[in-house]
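Example record used in the benchmark description.
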Amino acid sequence: MAPYLGAIDQGTTSTRFIVFDHFGRIVSVAQKEHEQIFPKPGWIEHDADEIWRRTQEVIEEAMRAKELRPEDLAAIGITNQRETTVVWNRKTGRAVYNALVWQDTRVDDAVAEFSREGGQDRFREKTGLPLATYFSGLKIRWILKNIQGAQKAAEAGELLFGTVDSFLVWKFTGGTDGGMHVTDVTNASRTQLMNLQTLDWDSEMLEVYGIPKKMLPKIRSSSEVYGKARLDSIRNVPIAGLLGDQQAALVGQTCFHAGEAKNTYGTGCFMLENTGTEIVHSKFGLLTTVAYKFGDQPAHYALEGSIAFTGAVVQWLRDNLGLIQKSADIESLARTVRDNGGVYFVPAFSGLYAPYWKSNARGVIAGLTRFANKGHLARAVLEATAFQTREVLEAMEKDSRIQLKVLRTDGGMVENDLLMQFQSDILNLPVVCTVVKETTALGAAYAAGLAVGYYQDTDDLRANWAVDRTWTPNMDEETRESLYKIWKKAVTRSFDWIE
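Model output (structure tokens):
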């Protein structure tokens, strides 16, 4: 068998292609950013065609860097920004409108409209999700209603919908010339159109949202051969793994037992806890989602706490305010002060996600005095990530009735020592990061490897997992609870800003 696995990690701000060896070590990597498009306040879009170009470019670059040939790859997995919605023409392959990004809030009015009858949780029992701007279903509805001729074309079978994984697989396997129109259970579970029990599109949800079933991809498992790539640099390599990015990180962290959890610090922050084959409906503001499904094995489910803005707030400090030159500079700026100086930053740029689900909230900076400076603001931005994570973890422990003993972490922000120490302090828990930081891409590679026999079972994957760094709590209880109490007060100031 070929020595390596490939993984496409198509994220919110960039696309990467990573080649891994059998032990999960990185052999080659290439990465390129794509444009963030902001037509109006609260509207966030991507150019799907640009994403496809960047995906081809990073694959070719990573393969060329190590002089790799297609036959060096046993399989390729794809992981992707979830909920981001692409609708394209099956005959031309072109998107009918820019992709609507998961953070986009333009369907606010639709959320309110559907909530009036049955409340925000009216679809939670069957989909695991509250009514929110986050998920794909209402985004599809917006495109069909607002792009001229789209509804009619969709009903005629001329348009296809997909989250980014589906769009890429279709492109890789031929596009207009017989491309496979598929998605996996994890991505499908983020549309608010899939029934968690049947793992199929729910006819009632499609009717309520006015979405023709013929435009939806076929739902498959997370680990199977969907087709073979036609791109020259990876020609005939099986595309064999599909996982939404947060579920991919759960797999990359080898959280295969009920009660094991991970937290990914990226554009947003996402904590997932494996609940096994049991569907656990949240009573404390979390999402119920599919964790993964490997081949013919039963699906595993998860509780998820989704936070919209964490790393993206650092980018905001860099790009919108110009307080730092590069994202990594935030740690040194935050270290210029001893503490937050009473400053709290609530980054509700697109409303609040878990555990509040308040789409009418907006970001606030609270506690400002003449004493406050840019160092305090930088520190408040980092601390906001840790505070929000504590809120999610507390909800997760109530829902699952399992008390976490350690938090596994991954993502770009784990490189920030100040943040991770504060995270351990505010949780009063050990926080660990793994030797391989790119666990999202690794999870996609693992799924692909299982599908083609590169790995025999999940025990092979567990053997690769190893701790690189551990942060342990070093804060007294009084300080911890005082900081958290004021944070909770600051959060309430963001509520109901939009009337």
